[in-house]
Write a structure and sequence with these properties.
Blueprint: E1 11-18, E2 24-34, H1 38-51, H2 57-73, H3 80-93, H4 97-108, H5 119-135
Antiparallel strand pairs: 1-2
Helix pairs in contact: 1-2, 1-3, 2-3, 3-4, 4-5
């Protein structure tokens, strides 16, 4: 199942030191801030731009950065196919048809075996057809 809307929050875990008698030491604690991976944070920002139907230069840059972060994360990347599709959507909102087609084709190139015949693949192929129709091809 695909995650469409993520809310990213920094997670703070606090632990307390325990004394020899099993009691909490007075005022002793350790805090650790856990940040989500960069590709996940940018994925969320790109997804939010897509949801807002934002075709601005800033939205395009965020989604391009999200794709670059997914590429840098390699096999550990969060949804590299989806982020490319989101970039295609943002290009569509900006009426950058050729760029949208390239982004969707890039997303289709990342198909996993379980996704070869899913509806999402059909959706991307439809978006390519819409962009090509807008180009006049």
């Amino acid at each position: 199942m695909r995650i469409r809307n993520l809310t990213l929050l920094g997670v703070i875990a606090a632990t307390s030191a325990v004394g020899a008698q099993g009691r909490q030491g007075p005022g002793v604690s350790q805090s650790v801030t856990v940040r989500p991976p960069r590709d996940l944070m940018l994925f969320d920002e790109c997804d939010q731009a897509r949801i807002r139907q934002d075709g601005s230069t800033r939205a395009i840059q965020i989604c391009q950065d999200a794709v670059a972060a997914a590429d840098a994360a390699g096999a550990a990347a969060f949804a590299p196919r989806d982020v490319r599709s989101f970039l295609g959507d943002v290009y569509m909102f900006a009426t950058r048809w050729s760029d949208a087609i390239d982004a969707y084709r890039s997303a289709l190139g990342i198909v996993k075996l379980a996704e070869e015949s899913d509806l999402y693949t059909g959706e991307m192929l439809t978006k390519i057809a819409v962009a090509e129709a807008n180009l006049g091809d």
